[in-house]
Each structure stands twice: as structure tokens, then as C-alpha cells.
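request received
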Amino acid sequence: MSQHDHGAQPVILPPTEAWGVLRSLLNPITYLKFVKEHPILSIIFVAGLVVTVNRFLIGGLAGTTHLDNNNPWGIWISFDLLCGVALAAGGYTTTAAALIFNIKGFRTAVKPAILTAFLGYSFVVYALLYDVGQPWRLPYPVFVSPGTSSVLFEVGLCVMLYVTVLAIEWLPNFTDWVGMKKISHLIHKATIALTIMGIVLSTMHQSSLGMLYLIAPSKLHPLWYSPQLPLQFFVSSMVAGMSMVIFEGTISHHYLHSRMSPEYNRDHDGVLFGFAKACSIILFGYFFMKWVPIAGENKWAYLTDGKFAVMWWVEMFGFVALPCLLYAVGYRNKSTGIIKAAAAISVLGIVVNRFNVSWFAFNIQLRPGQHYFPSVQEVIVSVFVVTLIILCFRFISKYMAIFSDHPAYKDHH
Amino acid sequence: MRMVKRFSRSRWGRVCFLTLALSLASALLAGLGVGVVDQAKAQSPQILMSGTAIGGKPGQSPLSKVQFNHQKHEAAVNGNCDACHHTGSQEPCSSCHTSQGSPEGGNVQLSQAMHDAKAKASCVGCHYQETRKPECLGCHRNIAPGPKKDNCSVCHQDPKAAPAPAVPAQPDTVEIGSLSKRYGACTFDHAAHVEALKAAAKGDLAKAFHSGDAALCQGCHHHTPVGETPSKCGTCHGKAFQKEDPSRPGLMAAYHIQCNQCHKAMGVEPVAATDCTGCHAPKK
Amino acid sequence: MKRRNFLGLAGAATATVTATALTGNAKASGHSFEGYPNSYGVLFDASRCIGCRQCEMGCNKINSENKSEAKPWINLPAKDASVFATPPAEDTVRTDSTMFTLVNKFEPQALGGKSPVYKKFQCMHCKEPACASACFVKAFTKTPEGAVTYNGSVCVGCRYCMVACPWSVPTYQFDKLIPYVKKCHMCHPYITSGKAQVPGCVGACPMEALVWGKREDLVKQAWERIGAVPGKYLPHVYGEHEMGGTNWLYISHVPFAQIGLAEDLGETPAPELTSGALGLVPLVACLWPVLLGGIWQITKWKDRKAGEATQQAVAEAVALERAKAGK
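response:
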């Protein structure tokens, strides 16, 4: 079944050397070496730092972004929050498949998925530090003055709890590496509980992100506004997560192949086919689900009305129907190439959908000159955040047993 | 028979008889013609409306018929009969608009046909349109169309009956300064305004409805019986937003609304409404 | 099921439910809130406004002369009278963080596109404000006096209130390093402390285009004005029902859409738009653990049964072989 049922067990450093690696992070020479080896990434890093200083110490939001009183939310919300959360959904989908539905071939996909999700959510919170006006007050909604009528409260609470769950779920990777056996053991006992909590919390906040826009019916275009927006966001998040796992797995295969164990490689294609089948079915349902509010609220006339209609058709056929078809064909023909293409299109499709809801089809009541376009600094921050995610992912995969089982704790997995 | 025979014997007799007969005939025809023409002219001066069916309000005596001057109205619409006779034929209104309403009249009762403020062909409606002209709109901007609750007699009355009330003595200028805080007093040229209003209301329509020049005072000095000396505005207009009469503006607003809106309606803005110092100099 | 797993499952369910017990605000069954009685509001008459901007100056004056140290978000930078000399040029200008209100000039089609009509823009002080519903730190309060006030001491700066407000009223101090939301507060702090009888804008208007009073009385007065001169005003009081009703009402002699007041907002109060969906969230928290736990148990049971079947098949095969070999 697998195309490359091979690979030696990757080398995992023993705990003493692990601490040495961690200590090297405190050493400036490590960073100089990094700059020498990765000039482009370093430029992004420096640009990110410059913008960070500007955002917090010099220009504030006005000097960094193109946000204004008509457009309070920009790409830091559209991309870093909405897309970030949707694409980090791989955590709950993969753990559901492997641990709740008990599908054997998914066991090895759990740890990379948890890592992606953990980093994804952590950096969503990090990006929020840039976006909100007084980031030091981020704990306020939970610990100081809860506004429980707010959808955003629910998003914030669930994301906070879920980041905690993910951190706990990811922690064994670290504690295994540095030799803290007892903690690993303790966490492993709570796996099912944590997994169920994770799925519940994910369901709630993925749908709540869609719920955010329910409060502004006059601002969101009728082709996207419907009371079913939360459900649409939740269903598409499942596809987003699975597609991201495939997508990230593809990229990891290219750059981190040496870290992949034979078991992981053996299971890899099975994961691809399993997710492809699931995504195809879910996208099929999602496609028809998007028609329900059109029919139910008699919005047919909007389907042929101007640029928004074009955007809607492109989203539906280019980014929902097409990947659905590609996933199905890829599954039937057992073609990993087609499946990987479908995954890439799906990932892009999630971005397109979230951008449509939060930016392109939002604030339609504004006049032409009032619309928002991100500033260069905003784009730098978003790129910076993605770069940080990639760097952290790379660092953790390079040293910890993400794509393999830790030699000392085989019995736990 | 014998006479005809005798006349016909002589030529002169025949000529005389023919001349006499022709003269008599033409005199007769001319007389008839004059009679017909006279009848047509007889419609013009005044028509009494068949309004005696109106009994007036309970406790009220029946209202008089309306004295409708058809000639003046013909001139006012420049001979365009369709302005009122909107069907094209010059039938009387009551032939279709019966007192109970009939299908030919679109089920519009006679009273509605006369009094509907929104219809252009009705008396009230057409007059209301006239008050929208700039020279009238200054005072009439806030006066609802149609007969007021106790005012049917403005139309249903012999205009010669009541004498026009006398106009009270008027000042030439008035210093309006009771509220001066940021700005000084405003010197209001009362005489000039009265003259302007008199000039604006010199038309026949205005004279028909205004009982006299004294009626013009009502445009600003509202709630004052015609002919009486008006009280100071501040007698009733005091502090704003009073519970007793929430719709009554405070004194400052009463002044500004009165002046600004009248100027705007009449299209006469010697000073822009937003130019505060144009009317009252700032205080130091 | 092993006890440990059951406890873990129960723990997960309880933890999730407890953690989300605060979540959601499903409408209390059978109750409806008709608004605070005796709450005050303002009626704006578009036919009276002459665009002199005295209201803006009055607002600026009262908020810049009574600077609060404890509440910097109600302060405004003092502006010179010359700023208000002429109306803002285009009708696309909106309030920013240096002002709570703005008068815009419109040239509506209904009057031929040449006569100006002016409209004052400020917080509508909704009966059920979208900002208060949207704020996740309860920074907005609908006071019984009618004003919707903002408490910057808990504000995180998420700006969801700006997204939620149908009239896009709240402004943000994007240029400050410690920014706050800036929004008209109907001079609530000054009126409740006795410093003022009416809001700064209302007191400054020379035409009484702004009328102060109890909301019910203002609605009555608005309809009386409309009825008094038939045909002058549009037979609609803007704010009577829009978004569930607002405390700032408008009557106008030209269509409201032509003076910048959106007419497509509907009558559903903003909180109702999200309360239904939010009410489902605790249900997910209760039901999902049951569902997922059930699925997990079923798959475990299936695996066990499959394992047993395999074992039995192997044992039978071995026995058969032994029997054969034994022969």
C-alpha cells in the first residue's frame, strides 16, 4: 500500500543532550548560525521584529495597519484568527479518527497533527496580541469581567481552554525528550478525556467563529449571511483540518524525511486515503448545505448579480466542488498526487471562504473609497507569524519524536 | 285675403309689405340671438353652490352656501377648464359626485370632492397648492390644509357680512434681547416685515381667505385672536422641554424656528441661517 | 469499561460542561424585556436642522471642559469654534475618536438634489444595544436612564462592538498606544451628577431640532408632529422599531435613506441575532461527550470482539492441526 515502506528509526537525543540543545537556544551564536544558513527567513524575522516594535512602542495600530473606524478588523482577524483556527483543526479531526473511532492506521498521524494544532492555536493567540488594542488585558474576559452574552466570549473561552488541552496533549513529546517520565505517564492516562474535551471545545469555537458575523446582517452580503453560518464554519473546519494534515504531511515529507519512522511511512498513505474519503463526503454535504439558505430565504436573485455572485460561484465550484471531486477520484484511483492537489486546493478554499465572509463580502454598505486593504506591515506580521510556526514546527520535529515513537516509551503508543 | 289681394295689385304695396316682413323677421331673430348670448353671460359673475344640504355641526346653525366667483377662478387657471372640470365636460360636480357617492364619481362623495386636501381639483386641494408658493409659504408652512375645526364659515359665509377687524398699533422696530448671553440683542425691523407680508398677500385668493390685514399678524403671533394686540413670545415660550407641553419650543428655539423657517420657505434669506452674527452681534 | 476510563470520561464531560456553563445566553423562557420605563431619549427633526453645528460644539465643550482623570474615554480634545464654521464637505465623513457626534449635509433627490438637508450622527442608544451584546468584557451598559455607556477600564480593544453596531458608531483611538473606544454617552455622567440638565448637543441647538424627553413621550410627540401638517413629514419615526428600537429618534421630510439613515436594518434586536445560536453551545458541551464516549466504547467493543473471534479461530485451527498431527 505504501510507496515508501522504508526508513530507519530517526535518532532521538537522550535527555542530557536534549537539555544541551535547549541551552543552545540561549546562546546568541545559535542565532548567528541560523542567519547565515537561512538568509531569507532571517530577513522575515528582522522585518517582523521591526514591525513589532513599531506596533507596540511607536505607531500603535494607526502607524502599523490600515484599520479605521469603518474597518475595525483586517487580515490579522481574517487570516491569522479565522484561517489559523480553521486550519489548525487537524488536531481534533485526527485524534477523533485515531482515538475515538479507533481507526488503527491513524495512530502515527496523531502527534504531527497535535503539534500543528498546538502551534497553530498558540500563534493565533500570539497574533491577537498584535491586533487587540490592550493585549495585556486578554485574560479579562475570563478572569475579570465576563461578557457572557457575547459570541466572542465563547470563542475566547473555548480557545483558551483548547490551547491548554493541546498544550497538555503535546507536552508528552517534550517530557519524553527531556526524560520527565512521570509527567508523560500521567498525561497518557488522561488521553481519552483530553481528546473528548478537545473535540467538544473545537466544535464550539469553530462554529462560534461563524456566529461572530450573525450580529451584523446589514454588513455581510446575503449570499454568505445566513443563520447557518456557524454550522457551515464547523463543517468546513473538519475539511480544513484534514486537508491541512495532508498538506503539512506532504511538506514535511520533503524537508523532514529523516525524522520519519518506518511505521509512520507505512501508515502515511493510509492516512491520506482515509482523509480523502472523509473530505470528499463532507465536501459533498457542505456543497449542498450552502444551497439551503439560498433556497430557504429566496436569495436566488443574488446568484446572478454582479461581482459577489462571481465570487460565490468561484468559491462553490472552484474550492468546494472541485476538491470534492478530486478527493473522490484520488481515493478511487489510489493516487496520492491527486489527493495532495485536492488538499492544497481545500486549504486555499478555506482561506477564500474565511476571507469572503470577513473581508471581501463584508462591509458591503461602505462606499467604494472606504474599503479596507492591508498595509505592508500587516502582511509582514502575518508572514512573520507563519514563519514562526514553521520554524517552531521544524525545531520540534528535528529533535523530538513527532514522526516516530520515542524509543523509551514505545509501550505507551 | 282681401288685403293681400289689394297689396299685390300695386308694386309699391308689394315692396312695403316685403320690407315690413323682413324687418320684423330680422328683429325677431336678433332678439332671439341676444337672448341666447345673454343666457351664456349670465353664468359668469357668481354661482351659488348647492350647499344648503349641509346642516353644520350639532349646536351650529346651518352653514350658508358658498359664494363661488367663477369668473375670478377662470382667470386664475388661465381659462383651463380642466383644472376643476377634470372630466373634460363642464358638467356640475354634483352630477357625478353625489352626496352619498356614486360609481360614476369614483365613489367620491360631494363633500370629499370639495374638501379633499390632496386632490388638485377640489377647492381645498387647489387652494392648499397655492399656499405652497414662496410668497405664502412663510406663514403657511405649518398651517395644515383645509377648514379648521371651527372655521367652516371662512368659505360658507357671505363675505360682505362681517367687517374686517382693525389692525392694532405696531412698532417700527423691536429689540429682541431677553435671552442675550453669547450674542447681543437683535434689532428686528417689524414695519418692513409687515409691509413685505402685505405685498405678498395682495392677491385675490389671499384676500378671500384673510379677513383683513390683521390676519397677517397670525403668521408669527399665533394663538392671538385676530385684531388683538399680541403678547410677548416669552409669555408662553419659556424653558425648553417642559412636561406641560412637550411640543412647545423654548424661547430661543421659538425665535430661531420662526425667523429661519419663514425666511427659508419664502426664499428670502438676507442672512444665511448659519451666520449667527448676521442677525445679532457677538457679546465680548 | 475500566473504572479509570469511566472517571476520565466523566471528568471530561464535567470539566467541559463547567467550563462552558458560563457560556451562552439562551433567552429566558417566557420573558421579554420591554425596555426601562422612564428612560430618556432625543428626537431629531430633520426639517428643523440648519446645519449650524452648534450641537457639535456643545458636545465638544461639555466633554473637554469636564475632563475626567478616572475615565479618560469620555474626554474630548477641545476644538476651536472655527472648526465648526461650515459643515463637513462630503457626506462620507463619519465621526472619529476626537468627536462623539457629527452633522452631515445631504442634497436629497426628493428635493431635486439642490436643497440641503442636514442630519446629526451619533450613538443611537438602542434599547437592546448590539455593542453591549457583543462585548466580551461587558464594557457597555444600557443604563435605566436611557444612555448606553462605555466602561474603558475593562476594555481589551477587540473592536467587536464596532463590527456589531448596525450604524458603525463606536470609534477607536487607533493612533494611541493605550487606546479606548470613543462613543457618545448622551452626557450620562454629567446629567446624573447634576452638571447638566440635557445633553450638550441638545442644549446648544438654536432650532430645537433636538428635543429631550422620555422615550415614550418623544414617540408620541413625533407622531403628533407628523400628523399636524399632513404631507410634510414621512409617516415614519426612525428608531421607533429599528433594531428593536432606539432612544435616539428621527423624523424627516425626505426619505431617511437619502439622509444617510439605513432603512434595511430590520426590527430584530441585535442580541436576538446571536442568542439562539449561542444557546446551542451548552447543549454541545453536554451531548458531545456522551456521543463521543459512546462511539469510543462501541469501537473498543468491536475491536475486542474481533480479537476474540480471531483468537477463537486460531485456537480452533491449532486444535485441528493437533488433531491431524495426533492421528
